[in-house]
């Protein structure tokens, strides 16, 4: 996107490049781009396995499949449980049985579950083959499709087994969101609100205007730009990428310790609120989340959430947790807090 386009507020299509040296790739956002993927990537001169799940309307993976000369499609069961060894094996077997080599490619068409799993299969099959990510949920379009993190879960531990495997290309078609259930649409936007609070005041202001669906391209573009800048500084998550955990420390504890059936983005939204140090901004952020249809009040078993925090994998020596705090929209700071201080924020609910 050019500076002039940005100033004019034009975000109908966008191309940015994730600059990671030899692992650099383009991120393309354009309505209808799934149906034109063959113009953006080679689907003719190699085998292509399109991986999707049975919650994704067939029209989206089939739009890609129709452009492949040697295309195969694998439809997995929808849901987090699919991020497991047996489904990973299924993908790898399909690749092997159909003669895929390192000259071929895997294309994910779906949400974060499909992207994480298919990306991991592409990372390990024959020690790594090309991966193209076509995310179809707001969560995967603003967050999980870029950054190269791929993984499956193990024994209840999320993303316990995985690899960094950068895609060859990310193609985001906002048209795919037309079939996404409203709850999932809002769920992913919590990560975009997070991006605004962390690094783009204008993005946060855009949410305050309301009508997120009407501004979806600009929201996706701005949120992606925030994450891209962070990933470029810290590809393998050893430093700067920690800021992306804003809202995740408490959010993850609430998500894991409660059985309220809340989605990930919903918990991240809730988890951000106590980490905003300025009262007025906290109220504004709560109003934005509420307007999106995301929960802003929740009651839970405080002891269970506190117990989960005590097992947070980010707990450093001396029982301190590094949390991400925001005092004004568009900037953040890291704070090391004793575990008890974070536990004290938990109480018996948020909001
Ligand atoms: N790799 C990363 O950096 C990263 C970051 C954040 C989250 N994640 C992972 O992302 C996953 C969550 O992703 P998600 O929220 O996209 O969930 P998801 O992939 O489970 O998708 C949610 C539901 O929407 C359906 N769906 C997908 N696209 C659709 C469409 N266009 N129309 C109708 N239905 C559609 C799916 O079938 C599924 O039922 C988690 O496993 C999480 O760990 C990864």
Major sheet: 7 strands, mixed
The total of beta strands comes to: 13
Mean pLDDT across all residues, rounded? 94
Give the names of the bound compounds.
nicotinamide-adenine-dinucleotide
Low-confidence stretches: none
Which CATH class of the largest domain is shown?
Alpha Beta
Distance between the termini: 38 Å
CATH architecture annotation name of the largest domain: 3-Layer(aba) Sandwich
What is the spatial order of strands in the main beta sheet? 1-2-9-6-5-3-4
- If helices are DSSP runs of H or I spanning 4 or more residues, what is the number of helices? 14
DSSP strand content? 15-25%
| CATH fold-level label of the largest domain | Rossmann fold
Q: How much is the radius of gyration in Å?
A: 20 Å
Pairing-aware structural class of the strands and helices? alpha/beta
Q: What share of residues is helical? A: 40-55%
- Shape label: globular
What letter string, H or E per element, gives the SSE order? HEEHEHEHEHEHEEEHHHHHHEHEEHE
Tally of domains: 2
What does this structure look like?
It is globular and about 55 Å long. A hairpin with a 7-residue loop joins β11 and β12 (333-338). It folds into 2 domains: 3-179, Rossmann fold; 187-350, Dehydroquinate synthase-like, alpha domain, CATH 1.20.1090.10. It is an alpha/beta fold. Helix content is 40%, strand content 21%. α7 (182-199) crosses α9 and α13 runs antiparallel to α14. The strands form 4 sheets. A 7-stranded mixed β-sheet has the order 1-2-9-6-5-3-4, sandwiched between helices. It has a two-stranded antiparallel ribbon with strand order 7-8. Strands 10-13 form a two-stranded antiparallel sheet. It is built from 14 helices and 13 strands. Nicotinamide-adenine-dinucleotide is lined by residues 53, 55-57, 60, 78, 80, 83, 110-114, 116, 136-137, 139-140, 143-144, 147, 149, 158-159, 176, 179-180, 184, 187-188, 264.
């Amino acid at each position: 996107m050019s500076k002039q386009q940005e100033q004019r507020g034009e975000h109908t299509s966008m191309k940015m490049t994730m600059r990671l040296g030899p692992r650099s790739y383009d991120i393309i956002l354009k309505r209808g781009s799934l149906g034109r993927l063959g113009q953006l990537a080679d689907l003719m001169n190699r085998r292509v396995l399109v991986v999707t799940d049975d919650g994704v309307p067939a029209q989206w993976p089939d739009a890609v499949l129709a452009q492949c000369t040697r295309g195969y499609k694998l439809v997995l069961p929808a849901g987090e449980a699919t991020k497991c060894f047996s489904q990973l094996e299924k993908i790898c077997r399909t690749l092997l049985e159909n003669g895929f080599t390192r000259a071929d490619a895997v294309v994910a068409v779906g949400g974060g579950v499909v992207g994480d799993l298919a990306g991991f299969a592409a990372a390990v099959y024959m020690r790594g083959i090309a991966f193209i990510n076509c995310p179809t949920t707001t969560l995967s379009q603003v967050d999980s499709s870029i950054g190269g993190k791929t993984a499956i879960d193990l024994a209840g531990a999320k993303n316990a087994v995985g690899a960094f495997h950068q895609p060859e290309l990310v193609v985001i078609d906002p048209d795919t969101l037309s079939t996404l259930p409203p709850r999932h649409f809002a769920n992913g936007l919590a990560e975009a609100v997070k991006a605004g609070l962390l690094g783009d005041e204008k993005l946060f202001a855009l949410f305050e205007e309301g009508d997120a669906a009407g501004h979806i391209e600009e929201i996706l573009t701005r949120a992606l730009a925030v994450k891209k800048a962070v990933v470029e500084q810290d590809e393998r998550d050893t430093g700067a990428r920690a800021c992306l955990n804003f809202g995740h420390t408490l959010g993850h504890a609430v998500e894991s310790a409660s059985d309220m059936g809340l989605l990930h983005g919903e918990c991240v939204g809730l988890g951000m609120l106590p980490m905003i140090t300025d009262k007025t901004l906290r109220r504004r952020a709560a109003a934005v989340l509420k307007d999106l249809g995301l929960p802003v009040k929740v009651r839970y078993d405080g002891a269970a959430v506190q117990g989960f925090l005590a097992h947070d994998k980010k707990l450093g020596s001396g029982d301190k947790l590094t949390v991400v705090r925001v005092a004004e929209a568009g900037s953040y700071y890291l704070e090391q807090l004793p575990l008890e201080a974070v536990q004290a924020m938990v109480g018996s609910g948020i909001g």
